[in-house]
Amino acid sequence: MTRTPTSRRWPLFLISIVVVGAGLFAVGRWSVPVGDRPGFAAPDVAPVIANPQIGPVEVVTALSAKIQYQDTVTVLPSAVDGAYRQVITSAPLQRGDAVALGDQVVSVAAAPVFALKGTVPSFRVMVLGDSGPDVTQLADSLTELGYLARPPKTMTSAVVAATARFLADRSVAVPVDTLMSTGIDGRMFAFIPDFPAIVIDTDLLAGTDLDTTKNGLILGQGAIELVVAPSQNNINLLPGTSVSATCDAVTITGKTTSTTRVWQAAAASTATSLDASAQTDGRATLATGYVVSTAADLSTLLKATCTATATAGQGGATMITVPAAAIFTSTDGTSNLHIQTRGTEFRTVPIQLGSSISGWVQLVNPPRELTATTPLIVGDS
Fold it and tell me: Could you give the CA distance from residue 341 to residue 369 in angstroms, rounded to a whole number?
């Protein structure tokens, strides 16, 4: 057997010791936690930063919505002078019927009542020489219908003669001489602000006593509108706000593109309430709302009650809000913000909290130093 000389085995042995020692050193060095290593330090954790918001906070809000006429008017006729009972003897109009200038709307105690243009009802007998809004309305309507060349400001013989011709054309024969002596009973006319008008509802039924009617004849006027109103306070629908509404299982979806099916709030507007319980000169009380659309195809959904939502702004233009996660509570219960000064360093600013809005909190009397770029440390950073 050939043996390796002893002088050649020693270098191999030394090399093995060096390699194993280096490996053990490496394992020991890198198995030590980073923060405990000689010459190594844990890196700083960057804090999460947010900024205050100035102005309204965007929220998805529920809206009440209705499709209705731009305006409504209620006609409550009364019997002409001398009638013993105010019994409705003829009620020719039903829901959906159109009413034009000069049309008969009802008969009370066999005396017909005709639709003329005006805003002030008349309950008196107008005689020669009288003046006032009822005389002006009568003369203006007779002129528009072609019975007068131009309307006078007072009751004249020309107005009386024109009224007699108007009545005769509607099968009501009253001689001019009779009208000259007895005057013209204003209760023969239902003054309506504008035409055409559409019958929305009526409880004027032939054979019933006029005293038992509650709503009379409710007429819709102007364009048919989709009107919405926020269910929360302090909500603003800015021009161009997209509105999604569902009306009687027909879905109307708002989009931001310019198509024929865009439903966007054009501007703040007044929309007529269909509640005719409070009246002023025969008109229904106005309620504030936002007109979303006046598209022609809304007529098929008239009087539909809708559910709607919109992404709208809540709050005023100067309101300052901060993320809820940026608010820290001290041991004494004080609410604070941590304004970043450098890295993880901050200074504490006490604040007074207002209402919460979709993850944001309104500040009451906010510190003047807060701007839209103020860096706030969020959470446990």
Answer: 13
User: Do 322 and 372 form a contact (C-beta atoms < 8 A)?
Assistant: no
- Take residue 82 and report the two structure tokens written for it: 């001398």
Task: Tell whether 85 and 100 lie within a shared domain.
Answer: yes
CB within 8 Å of 137: residues ≥ 6 apart: 116, 117, 118, 119, 120, 122, 191
Q: What's at 79, amino acid-wise?
A: A
What is the residue-wise DSSP string for 230-244? ESSTTEE--TTEEEE
d(CA 361, CA 379): 15
Pairing of strands 111-117, 189-192: parallel
Residues 86 and 132 in one domain: yes
How sure is the predictor about 144, in pLDDT bands with cuts at 50, 70 and 90? very high
Predicted confidence band at 43 (pLDDT cuts at 50, 70, 90)? low
| Contacts by residues 258-261 (CB-CB < 8 Å, ≥ 24 positions apart) | 260/295
Question: What is the pLDDT confidence band of residue 263, given thresholds at 50, 70 and 90?
Answer: very low
Pair 271, 285: CB distance under 8 Å = no
Residues 308 and 348 in one domain: no
Q: Do 142 and 148 form a contact (C-beta atoms < 8 A)? A: yes
Q: Do residues 84 and 182 share a domain?
A: yes
Say which residues have a Cβ less than 8 Å from residue 24's Cβ, sequence separation at least 6.
none
User: 262 or 228: whose pLDDT is higher?
Assistant: 228
Q: How far apart are CA 183 and CA 53, in angstroms?
A: 70
**Helices marked H in the chain:** 6-30, 133-144, 157-168, 176-182
pLDDT of 82 reads 58
Is 163 in a helix, a strand, or coil?
helix
Domain range for 363: 49-56+317-377
Q: pLDDT at residue 365 above 90? A: yes
Predicted TM-score (pTM) above 0.90? no
Q: What is the mean pLDDT of residues 290-318?
A: 77
